[in-house]
Amino acid sequence: MLDENTAKAIVVDFLATLPRRDRHDRWVVSRVEDCGDFWLFHWTTHRNLPPRNLKVALAGNYPIGVRKSDGVACIWTMLFPFEQFADKLVHHPEQLPQLPKKE
Fold first, then answer.
1. In the chain, where does DSSP find H-type helix?
2. DSSP state of 8
3. How many domains are contained in the chain?
4. pLDDT per position as a tens digit, 28-84
């Protein structure tokens, strides 16, 4: 079983590969939810964490689910209701966009 910190490390490693708006900013996990069989990570830019700089444009970021049993990480694109995403992540993760595997 993956604990929250191990699952978060998977997400943080992925976020580090994403392009940034400028060199002073970085992507960070903003909230974590324990969803039973998986962890759900919400993320944003460091500059959007409280106290938020209202001059920084904010776009929606897709949450990332990390399965506790084996660390499979998938993106919830919101094409499915949450219940469907949860079922697919637990039983059929191949039907969801997955984070690239770390080499």
1. 4-15, 82-91
2. H
3. 1
4. 998 999 999 999 999 988 877 777 666 666 666 899 999 999 999 999 988 889 999
Residue 103 belongs to some domain of the structure: no
For the chain, the residue count is 103
The answer for residues whose C-beta is within 8 angstroms of residue 34's C-beta and 6 or more apart is 4
Cβ–Cβ < 8 Å for 97, 74: yes
Residues 85 and 61: beta-carbon distance below 8 Å: no
Instruction: Quote the CA–CA distance of 99 and 11 in Å, as a whole number.
Output: 9
Q: What is the pTM of this model?
A: 0.88
E-strand stretches of 1-103: 27-34, 38-45, 64-67, 73-75
CB 2 within 8 A of CB 39: yes
101: in domain: no
- Beta-sheet pairing, 27-34 with 64-67: unpaired
